[in-house]
Write a structure and sequence with these properties.
alpha/beta, Rossmann fold, eight-stranded mixed β-sheet, two-stranded antiparallel sheet, about 45% helix, about 10% strand, disordered N terminus
Amino acid sequence: MVTQTMPQMETPRLGPRPLSLHLSTAMAGMMSSLAALPSALNGSLPWRPELAAAAAELTAELSRSEPGALFQAVAAECQSRLGTMLAGVQAYQGAARPDRSWCMAQAIWRQGTTTLLDYGGAGRPCLFVPSLVNRAHVLDLTRDRGLLGWLRQQGHRPFLVDWGAPGEAELEFSLSDYIARLRAVLEVVEDTAPGPPALVGYCMGGDLALALAQQRQEVLSGLALLATPWDFQAGAQQWPGIDALAPGLDSMLEGFGALPVDVLQALFAALDPGLAQRKFCHFASLDPDGAEAAHFVALEDWVNDGVPLAAQVARDCLQGWYGGNTTARGAWLIDGHAVDPSLLKLPVLAAIPENDRIVPAASAQALADAIPQADIIRPAAGHIGMVVGRRGKSGLWQPLSNWLQSLDE
């Protein structure tokens, strides 16, 4: 038995990471509000066509205000919102560390920095494959929002791949190397639990699971793809920061040896620049001893405890997937062979969250469309909320459990 080690956060907390970016974005938003006032007052502010009617009403209302008083009121509101955000950040940084002693996972195998966690149980084994850029425990985040612990209670036998941060060997990995390691993990699961395992991939972990399933589908009972991207030109999939990052990517990777965590965090932040301000203003209003605050801290700790991406993997993903759409074009190669979802003969479940900003529904839908036998569910949630949100149990957990159960029928 391998002793389990859970990831440790820095002390004190540095999040929300990158903090300077989130604070400067909030301040820039406030300053732009003040700078836009003259244009808003004279009706010259550009608006999207669908907002034209509401803009006309706002312009008329503003015209009845005294300009000096309006400026002071907007400035005061900006200061208040920024102060509330800072209060929320300080409250988060000082919050107690989440207790994970309740987690029932046991580490049973390790190779390099990759660990296999076994949740026990007597049911069919199901191997969960998370993304390479975030910690694995989002799939078992808290006692009451932990998907894997809940699945065990429903009679399944969950296993979880914990990639960890790349070590000396993993920093040289390509995606083919990660698939090779995943094959070794699958063999351990086969030796540990009876019955053909199901494979479940989350986000880019779904792409890794897909590649493995194509190679080993004869030993698998099914494949579930949770918010898995495929067509990187569908649904405005291109992230705003990737074009800006591309010219200096190779120099950055050579300098750091990997794509740093804060660069990855900045790419995520570019999807919704105002999210950090909204989140921490809300957190400032919560009862610090309440359940909602505890969930916020656990989730935010996970968000800020990302891991760097090995240099070749970063090239494969950013230049290949996002830049060249190699997945949808049939040009993504693992061990020299194209990853082709149409070759799958397994039962497949595709979970496509309706409100996903990280993996737009059209991108994940393209993968489901390429697999004729795929069953599709559409949780009314976002990319992360599908797994840990209040409606996660009804939107994803129960349908996934039902599908896993159907593999035995």
